[in-house]
Amino acid sequence: MKNVTDSFVSLVHWPFAGSFGFNTDILATNPINLSVVLGVLIFFGKGVLSDLLDNRKLRILNSIRNSEELQGGAVERLEKARARLRKVEIEADQFRVNGYSEIEREKFNLINSISKTLDQLENYKNETIHFEQQRAINQVRQRVFQQALQGALGTLNSCLNKELHLRTISANIGMFGAMKEITD
């Protein structure tokens, strides 16, 4: 094992005299190695990198196209929704106006109905008052008539004697008989 490590250590000390060997100077070898590696990668990896970039470009373009289609569909749906909203707002305004006019019409009809009912009640009240007045007047008339009749009977009974009473009855019977003949 010592021989193997000695051989690598001895490679480090090789001279620069035109023979093939390793350059251990890091500052001198790094740019050269990087340029060689980059050159090989560019030469051999150009096609692969180009294909990867083309695929990526196509995916991005497809994503953009799909997004634009979705945006177009969304804009179309938005316009339809706005049109529907305007239509619903117009219908709501019409319902509101119709509702207000219907309310006003119902209010007017109710006021007219109540007014007619009040007029009828007023007429019923007036008729009832008139009826009660007539009834009271008739009752008063009956009492006055009864009192007058009682007074007249009292006066007749006190003033009439039997003979005058019989003559009055005969005269009344004669008047009734004459009236009966006239009507027949």
Automatic annotation (TrEMBL):
Keywords: ATP synthesis, CF(0), Chloroplast, Hydrogen ion transport, Ion transport, Membrane, Plastid, Thylakoid, Transmembrane, Transmembrane helix, Transport. CDD domains: ATP-synt_Fo_b. One of its GO terms (molecular function) is proton-transporting ATP synthase activity, rotational mechanism. InterPro entries: ATP_synth_b/b'su_bac/chlpt (IPR002146). It is a single-pass membrane protein. Its main location: membrane. The keyword Disulfide bond does not apply. GO terms for cellular component: chloroplast thylakoid membrane; proton-transporting ATP synthase complex. It is found in: Membrane; Plastid, Chloroplast thylakoid membrane. The chain crosses the membrane at residues 32-49. It comes from the Eukaryota. The keyword Transmembrane helix applies. Component of the F(0) channel, it forms part of the peripheral stalk, linking F(1) to F(0). F(1)F(0) ATP synthase produces ATP from ADP in the presence of a proton or sodium gradient. F-type ATPases consist of two structural domains, F(1) containing the extramembraneous catalytic core and F(0) containing the membrane proton channel, linked together by a central stalk and a peripheral stalk. During catalysis, ATP synthesis in the catalytic domain of F(1) is coupled via a rotary mechanism of the central stalk subunits to proton translocation. F-type ATPases have 2 components, F(1) - the catalytic core - and F(0) - the membrane proton channel. F(1) has five subunits: alpha(3), beta(3), gamma(1), delta(1), epsilon(1). F(0) has four main subunits: a(1), b(1), b'(1) and c(10-14). The alpha and beta chains form an alternating ring which encloses part of the gamma chain. F(1) is attached to F(0) by a central stalk formed by the gamma and epsilon chains, while a peripheral stalk is formed by the delta, b and b' chains. In plastids the F-type ATPase is also known as CF(1)CF(0). Belongs to the ATPase B chain family. This is ATP synthase subunit b, chloroplastic.
